[in-house]
Specification:
The protein has 428 residues and is of the alpha/beta class. It has helices at residues 15-28, 52-61, 72-75, 79-92, 108-119, 123-134, 139-148, 155-160, 164-178, 207-216, 218-221, 229-232, 235-240, 243-254, 266-275, 278-281, 291-301, 305-312, 319-331, 335-343, 357-369, 387-403, and strands at residues 3-8, 32-38, 41-42, 46-47, 66-70, 98-103, 184-189, 350-356, 374-375, 424-426. The longest helix has 17 residues, at 387-403. The chain is globular, with a radius of gyration of 21 Å.
Length: 428
């Protein structure tokens, strides 16, 4: 029996994801697929367009056997935190043989070389990195420039860090190395449009383009009296989404459970920024000296969230970083707590989001051998022996309480829904 792990957002699950899923099975010959899925907030610092339960159903519909949660504290985080927490979850299962991820590079050797170097940074690199950061460059740009000047690093390694999925791939491999995990990394070359591309292709458009398109047709779909039939007649969605994803999206819209767009939190975040003292803003993750003042000033002088972000963004502080800070403010996540999670191995438990009939057998095996406590019934989190684990789950409760406020169906906005949820079961 062999198991392949996939780390994903499925925001939403499109044809490119389906291609990767099938290639992962073909390349590894695995018998089981375990998916670690982002929670209700995603890495770009935004709410997921549909909640984690809908996206779990999408994953199970294409053949995933077991879906586990990447808690919001990590799913809405920098690449290092995102990758390290997800790998920790997979490694703790004690049954995962492969981790398969998509990359622009498509060749594992160069990704491994980059990861090897970054996992054990030499003094020359550290010095160059500090100098570029002092010049006001973002971490990603500074790191690439620092690498390019190191004599011991070939250009083929430097070039891989210019693409978003390559960067995440390198972080996965770094995490595997640092944990001394036996998981074997495998990469599949990405096809179709780029990660952030808005171009609407005949197929294999990016998730960004799909979300953008859903935003364009939002008014035609309607919220008070949704008409999901519009989705089924939309040529772009039909060609870019698996039938199962389109069906699930249609059901979610009918029930008032989506789509959720970032602008739904605009007034809430503006208010939080204006009312929160600078001393408290300073405690948020990814904050640096002086940035809290820029955020406060921008919130007071701006009339929209995009305006706030545009006023704060610099070469050093990219928009994704600002959005993660805002997401942390919304969900009550503090930098000190995130640092404590890092010091204690990132993920503190295994949360089951869904499983198939075949996955049930794998889950039973995992429960006997895992390094971390397993949560199937959310109310059971209170029995977790580790206070840090309980605190992590309590943050998840707060994150969900915030997320549901943006749901189109007003009757779905009650608090405490996280504790009422149960894993999705698929008979397939």
């Amino acid at each position: 029996m062999s198991v392949v792990g996939i780390i994903a957002e499925y925001n939403p699950l499109h044809q490119g994801h389906l291609y990767h899923f099938r290639q992962a099975l073909e390349e590894t010959g695995a018998d089981f697929v375990v998916c670690v899925l982002s929670s209700n907030f995603v890495q770009r610092g935004e709410p997921a367009i549909f909640d984690k339960w809908a996206r779990t159903r999408m994953a199970l519909a294409i053949g995933a056997h077991l879906v586990l949660e990447l808690p919001s504290a990590f799913s809405c985080a920098s690449a290092e935190y995102f990758a390290s927490a997800a790998v920790r979850i997979l490694d703790s299962l004690n049954c995962v043989d492969f981790l398969c991820f998509g990359s622009e590079e498509g060749k594992i050797e160069n990704l491994k070389s980059a990861a090897e170097f970054l996992a054990y940074e030499n003094e020359e690199f550290k010095s160059r990195l500090k100098n570029f950061l002092d010049e006001g460059l973002s971490f990603a740009v500074a790191r690439q420039k620092a690498l390019s000047g190191c004599k011991s690093v070939p250009e083929s390694v430097v070039s891989v860090l210019s693409k978003p999925n390559n960067i995440l791939s390198v972080e996965y491999i770094k995490a595997i190395k640092r944990m001394e995990s036996k998981i074997e990394p495998v990469t599949i070359k990405r096809i179709g449009q780029g990660y952030n591309s808005l171009e609407r292709a005949a197929s294999y458009s990016s998730a960004t383009a799909v979300r953008y398109h859903l935003g364009l047709i939002k008014s035609r779909i309607g919220c008070d009296s949704p008409d999901p039939a519009i989705l089924e007649e939309d040529g772009f969605l039909v060609s870019n989404l698996p039938e199962s994803s389109l069906r699930i999206i249609s059901e979610e819209i009918t029930l008032g459970r989506g789509p959720v767009f970032p602008e739904a939190f605009e007034t809430t975040l503006l208010y939080l920024l204006r009312k929160t003292p600078v001393s408290e803003l300073k405690k948020l993750p990814y904050m640096e000296e002086g940035l809290e003042n820029r955020l406060k000033d921008a919130a007071i002088s701006s009339v929209s969230l995009p305006e706030v972000i545009s006023r704060v963004v610099t070469n050093r502080y990219p928009a994704s970083r600002i959005r993660r800070i805002l997401c942390s403010l919304l969900t009550g996540l503090q930098g000190e707590f995130l640092d404590k999670l890092k010091q204690n191995g990132y993920a503190q438990y295994i949360r089951i989001l869904g499983f198939s009939e075949k996955g049930r057998n794998l889950l039973n095996k995992i429960k006997k051998n895992t390094k971390l406590p397993v949560i199937t019934k959310p109310a059971g989190y209170i029995k977790l022996q580790d206070p840090l684990a309980r605190e992590l789950f309590e943050h998840e409760i707060r994150a969900t309480d915030a997320y549901v406020l943006a749901l189109p169906g007003k009757n779905l906005r009650k608090g405490g829904t996280e504790l009422q949820s149960r894993p999705v079961y698929s008979k397939v």
